[in-house]
Design goal:
Elements lengths: L9 E6 L5 H10 L12 E3 L5 E6 L4 H6 L5 E5 H6 L6 E6 L5 E8 L7 H4 L3 E4 L2 H14 L9 E4 L15 E7 L5 H5 L2 E10 L1 E6 L13
Parallel strand pairs: 1-3, 1-4, 7-8, 7-9
Antiparallel strand pairs: 2-3, 4-11, 5-11, 6-9, 6-10
Bound molecules: adenosine-5'-triphosphate and 1-O-pyrophosphono-5-O-phosphono-alpha-D-ribofuranose (PRP).
GO biological process, one term: L-histidine biosynthetic process
Catalytic activity: 1-(5-phospho-beta-D-ribosyl)-ATP + diphosphate = 5-phospho-alpha-D-ribose 1-diphosphate + ATP
InterPro entries: ATP_PRibTrfase_cat, ATP_PRibTrfase_HisG
Length: about 220
């Protein structure tokens, strides 16, 4: 595949794996967007529409869309805020799946019952921007400055293991809503605050990079 084969096509980013993947495939099927995904190839041309599907990590989609490298995408509202791309993408439609809450959690058996109990301690998360913003406010109201401030540490996954392993006093992680919380409970954690509610959204670039050029040959 080369750049010319994308000429005249709408580029549509889809999460390549994970929690949103299967639902996205259902949406494509429901819209009769037909494609054949070859093994190891992350760009596929639709067989019946002037569309190219680009399979990307959910966390990269806000930046690809926000910078105008692709035209449309599906990802989580949480991921857009974490990537700090909210001023560069427009959320066109809420999709009603991928619903979950980003929550502050602590060991159920311990003494931490509120976020103020966690202030100045160690928090592990994959959402270091959102957790950082949240605990900046917590630190301010607890008058914590300098090296007294809450320490936010990034991990790429399996966040809920951090407390049991002695890496953290609390975590910030996603909990499915309204249903599950199974991962949190299995790790002996309980939620003490909600940072935000999120779901999957359809996004487009607020300022498309090439508003006409790629589609000019149509
Ligand atoms: N348990 C869940 N229930 C519903 N939606 C979820 C859940 N966990 C995550 N999501 C949504 O799906 C998005 C992608 O999360 P997922 O865990 O699938 O990441 P991933 O694509 O596997 O990437 P990574 O490799 O970084 O974990 C999240 O940002 C969130 O919007
Ligand atoms: O409320 P629950 O139904 O238990 O879902 C919550 C879990 O789902 C997500 O992780 P995921 O399973 O996608 O894997 P990850 O931890 O590797 O990101 C999230 O990070 C939690 O761990």
């Amino acid at each position: 595949m080369n750049a010319e084969s994308l000429d005249g096509r709408l580029l549509f980013a889809i999460p390549k794996k994970g929690r949103l993947y299967e639902k996205c495939l259902s949406i494509l099927a429901g819209a009769d967007i037909q494609f054949r995904r070859h093994q190891r190839l992350d760009v596929c041309l639709s067989l019946n529409h002037p569309i190219a599907l680009v399979f990307l990590p959910a966390s990269d989609i806000p930046s690809f869309v926000g910078k105008g490298n692709v035209d449309l995408g599906i990802t989580g509202h949480d991921v857009i805020l974490e990537a700090q791309m909210q001023n560069h993408v427009t959320e066109v439609l809420r999709l009603g799946f991928g619903k979950c809450s980003l929550q502050v959690q602590a060991p159920e058996s311990g003494s931490i019952k509120t976020v103020d109990d966690l202030a100045g301690k160690r928090v592990v998360t994959s959402f270091e921007v959102l957790a950082g913003e949240y605990f900046t406010q917590v630190d301010l109201r607890n008058n914590l400055t300098g090296d007294k401030k809450t320490q936010i540490e990034y991990v790429g996954g399996s966040v809920e293991a951090a407390c049991a392993l002695g890496l953290a006093d609390g975590i910030v992680d996603l909990v499915a809503s309204p249903e599950s919380g199974d991962t949190m409970r299995a790790a002996g954690l309980h939620a003490i605050a909600t940072v935000l509610e999120t779901e999957a959204v359809l996004i487009r670039s607020t300022t498309p990079k090439h508003p006409t050029s790629r589609h000019s040959s149509r």
